[in-house]
Design goal:
This protein is mainly α and 273 residues long. It contains twelve helices and no strands.
Length: 273
């Protein structure tokens, strides 16, 4: 662009300049995408990642076993994490110092540890520590405990923030009407807190769905296998990465609707505010 063209551009109104820059951005983006698509070897990509015969060989087990277990692990860990997180959040807000110390230590510990390490500790450390006892539910119980321990630490902070976001006047008004503190928390404060934290809790479900890919460290069987392990076994059998693409698409079947739910809840919360 020479000096004359730059001068003409500066004479335009700010709105028109923004429109020109926006169109130029779209054009540059389209050119970059077109260049990448034109340079790619789609024949080799198709043979490597999009073999329909390999994809067909994964069904129906990919849905009836792997996807079902992934969803089940996610739900079990979420319920455990939600209940544990609520207890920890209330302990964090308690006036009893040992409760606050324990909740703080727990949250800091399990938020700092990788989920893979926690699963390993649950799967192999607990049986060594308690040789005469077994975690109920087998692999399902171990996954619930392993993923739930980490999830409860994150959910505790989310729920604590939601409880503290409820105006203190709500609790004081309930106490003025004769309600006990516990009844006021259950009937007045917690319902409002949960409405506030629904979007981040839904995000936690998405994170838990992806964390189920770590369950393989527990030594799953053919009936308890999840999506990532199932795809890895199929890849080794067929010597082709197409199963990884199929697994990725099945994860999106779970996470994309949840993402839409989160955005809808956030828009609803914004309207209510």
């Amino acid at each position: 662009m020479d000096r004359r063209q730059a001068g003409q551009l500066m004479k335009l109104s700010p709105r028109r300049r923004r429109r020109i820059f926006r169109v130029a951005g779209y054009v540059v983006f389209a050119l970059v995408i077109a260049t990448v698509l034109a340079a790619a070897d789609w024949g080799r990509l198709s043979d490597a990642f999009f073999r329909l015969d390999v994809a067909r060989s994964m069904f129906p087990e990919a849905i009836t076993v792997a996807l079902r277990n992934t969803i089940l692990y996610t739900l079990l860990a979420f319920v455990f994490g939600l209940v544990g997180g609520l207890v920890l959040a209330l302990m964090r807000l308690s006036t009893i110092l040992p409760y606050r110390w324990f909740a703080t230590a727990y949250i800091e510990l399990f938020r700092g540890l990788p989920s893979l390490l926690v699963l390993f500790m649950v799967g192999y450390g607990v049986p060594l520590a308690f040789p005469d006892r077994e975690i109920p539910g087998g692999v399902y119980g171990s996954v619930t405990l392993g993923l739930g321990l980490t999830a409860s630490a994150y959910m505790a902070e989310t729920l604590r923030a939601g409880i503290q976001a409820v105006p203190k006047g709500q609790l004081e008004a309930a106490r003025t009407l004769g309600m006990s503190h516990s009844r006021a928390m259950v009937s007045i404060v917690l319902p409002q807190a949960f409405r506030i934290v629904i979007p981040p809790l839904t995000n936690e479900i998405i994170l838990l769905t992806k964390d189920t890919s770590l369950v393989y460290v527990l030594g799953v069987t053919a009936s308890t296998i999840e999506l990532t392990k199932f795809a890895g076994d199929a890849l080794n059998q067929r010597v082709n990465p197409t199963p990884l693409v199929v697994a990725g698409l099945l994860y999106l079947v779970i996470t994309l609707p949840l993402s839409q739910v989160v955005r809808g809840l956030e828009r609803r919360a914004a309207r209510e505010r």
